[in-house]
Amino acid sequence: MYKDFQNYLRKELDAIYEAGLAKEERIIVSPQGAVIKLDNGKELLNFCANNYLGLSNHPRLKQAATKAFETHGYGMSSVRFICGTTDLHKKLEKKIAEFFGTEDTILYAACFDANGGLFEPLLTEEDALISDALNHASIIDGVRLCKAQRFIYSNGDMNELEEQLKKTQNLRFRVIATDGVFSMDGNVAPVNKIVELANKYNAMVMVDESHSAGVVGETGRGVTELYNCRGQVEMLTGTLGKAFGGAIGGFTTGKKEIIEMLRQRSRPYLFSNSLPPMVVAAGIEMFNMMSETNALQDKLHNNVKYFMDQIQKVGFDVKPTQSAIVAVMLYDAKVASEMAKKLSDEGIYVTGFSYPVVPKGQARIRVQLSAAHEFEHIDKCVKSFEKVGKEMGVLKK
Ligand SMILES: *Cc1c(COP(=O)(O)O)cnc(C)c1O
Questions:
Q1: Which of 52, 179, 207, 210 to mutate to test the pocket of ligand 1 (most atoms within 8 A of CB)?
Q2: 65: in domain
Q3: Per-residue model confidence (pLDDT) at position 316
Q4: Considering only CA atoms, which residue is closest to atom 1 of ligand 1?
Q5: What is the CATH number for 42?
Q6: Is 18 within a domain?
Q7: Same domain, 197 and 327
Q8: Which residue ranges have their beta carbon within 6 Å of ligand 1?
Q9: 20 to 30 A Cα–Cα from 93, which one of 243, 319, 322, 361?
Q10: Structural domain boundaries, residue 306
């Protein structure tokens, strides 16, 4: 039975490899951090993790996890509503709501699940979902799983959004869905303008804070802090897998009744296992740290600014950023992939992106800054960019 299918898969897979689109895994044998060690013994300076606050290997989080391991055990062996809810889960949900200034929170195994299970329980074919064209795959899947009518506007294009809002006035409810930070350019969604349009056209707003939580806004409270609209967005989703410790876990936080309905009807919540207590306990400790000090956010913001200044000084183009993501523009796909490889030989781990992940002629190397980086790490990174850039003749001036 398998033979025909095997041949089919082999052909499809070979096509992926031949097109140079294959994703490979590097084997890391150290904890996640500014410096990582590979299984070939090589050490790399890491500029491609979502470890924005440098918490992935933080002693306080490890300590909290170890403690919960002793007090609450290893796994929950249950979904939340049967016997998978501990005091820790309730406490973390409350901490998340406090952090974002929202009314209530529901935890999921991942933000992919939070987005996948968000719209379907809330909206029907009488309603409209209006989605940014560059939204994350999990938002797109969540929209697909919901029966609401779908409308799309170009990335951050407020004129197009307004058109879609006008067009959907005869429908019952309208929800505008957007990423907080778009991961290819590092740009922020204009949430202030989105909220303004939502108010004008009687719509609700959903923002996915996965890349922005912990990073964007003076104290890292995300795009609603940046645009001064805390509490004005009906639904926020986010991950514990990026700035917030980097392990696993997702959440939806927002209006009380929305969260209440998700606890009744959201499928990834009802039919998937509860987060392990040690991950939840580390999450609680992480939010304790966030409320004590802004030092990590300040360090991260300084690092982004420092890298932006230095990399432009040596002659590279960058996209303007409002996050910890910096797109170093090379435009040509081959140049970007060759440069990423050469940088890796220099001990700098960064990723090249080209079509179809970004538009044609917009190939780039994406650099992700972290509070785990020291200026000396950034200096080494910029020097390597300069060296390889010179060799390849791609520097300006
Ligand atoms: C990373 C990311 C997710 C997925 O988060 P997980 O918790 O890893 O599933 C969802 N949305 C956005 C915008 C992301 O960047």
A1: 210
A2: no
A3: 97
A4: 210
A5: 3.90.1150.10
A6: yes
A7: no
A8: 110-112, 115, 136, 138, 179, 183, 208, 210-211, 239, 241, 250
A9: 322
A10: 2-57+294-391
| 191 Cα to the center of ligand 1, angstroms | 19
pLDDT above 80: residue 397: no
Burial of 341-379, coded b for 16+ CB within 10 Å and e otherwise, reads ebbbebebbbbbbbeeebeeebbbbbbbbbbbbeeebbe
Nearest to 107 by CA among 131, 68, 136, 81: 81
pLDDT class of 116 with cuts at 50, 70, 90: very high
Report the separation in Å between the CA atom of 112 and the middle of ligand 1, taken as the mean of its atom positions: 6
The best mutation among 106, 107, 108, 136 to test binding of ligand 1, ranked by most ligand atoms within 8 Å of the C-beta, falls on: 136
Would you place residue 44 in the very low, low, confident or very high pLDDT band (cuts 50, 70, 90)?
very high
pLDDT at 4 over 90: yes
pLDDT for the residue numbered 283:
98
Residue of 51, 106, 216, 239 to mutate, ligand 1, most atoms within 8 A of C-beta: 239
Q: Give the CATH number of the domain where residue 272 resides.
A: 3.40.640.10
What are 227-242's pLDDT values in tens digits?
999 999 999 999 999 9
Boundary residue ending a domain (292, 313, 345): 292
CA distance 288 to 269: 25
Of 72, 95, 136, 211, the catalytic one is 211
Same domain flag for 168 and 284: yes
Measure 240 CA to ligand 1 centroid, in angstroms: 9
Per residue in 286-343, pLDDT (tens digit) is 999 999 999 999 999 999 999 999 999 999 999 999 999 999 999 999 999 999 999 9
Domain count for the chain, please give it. Answer: 2
Is there a catalytic annotation at residue 183?
yes
Residue listed under structure tokens 């689109």: 21
> 300 and 285: one domain?
no
What DSSP string describes 44-102? EEE-S-S-TTS-TT-HHHHHHHHHHHHHH-S---S-HHHH---HHHHHHHHHHHHHHT-
Catalytic-residue membership of 95? no
Domain termination residue (choose one: 260, 292, 324): 292
Residues 6+ apart with CB under 8 A from 15: none
Statement: residue 21 has pLDDT above 90: no
